[in-house]
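Sequence, structure tokens passed on for absentees:
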Amino acid sequence: MGPMLESSAELFSSLYERALAWLAHEVTEPGLIVDAGSGPGVVSCLFAETFPGARIVAVDGSEPLLERARARAERQGVADRFSTIAGELPDVLDELDYPADLLWASRSLHHLGDQRAALAAFAARLAPGGTLALMEGGLPPRFLPRDIGIGRPGLQARIDAVEAEWFTQMRTDLPGHVAVTEDWPALLAGAGLKYTRTHTFLLDLPAPASDRARAYVITSLSRLRERITDGLDAEDLATLDRLLDPGDEASLHRRPDVFVLEAHTVHTAVRAV
């Protein structure tokens, strides 16, 4: 997963850079930034670039991914103010030496069964006046036109419905799952923080797709195909299989109309001084 996660995060670098520049208007001169659920550290290193006076701590449950994060920090010349902690969120945050001035959680919260309790734990690790930045939600991705010339038009809209059901089941199956209404400003306020603002950032990579963007689309739909056993009818599954077949003239490997259009939403809240 390491190379795939790293390549995907690099593809989204322009989106993350705009999100971090937006955060920089609210968070001035942070001393400690924690990337909770950092993966291979692409965004962690962008934080080091955006905030040159900050110490960065990348936190993740996978030590191999953190190895990649440390190697990236070394390559980018920020290893002297970059460290990692391996362990499961949110409890691993107790290992921080100091409270965070900025805690970034990018699509890691929804992998935790009790999101309300996890937000409270995140809030508890903030310094007075510290900011929690939560990337959750946005819009489903689009990779292809509505009518792609094979199968029924509207394939991705139908995939969205299947993905929503899969996501609900994934959440339900998590240990300690607690259902919550995903009103992020209200949940942040419930964690004792003062909600400040929300902004959505767009990644718009038009057709014809670059090799990296095309690889991302192929990987995304391949992983989706692996976990889909119900929800799509036989015609849609056959269309998806054609899209993933490198030998098919209509496949994602050859199509000139492949693009990437995604929207990710960031919510921020501050701990009282």
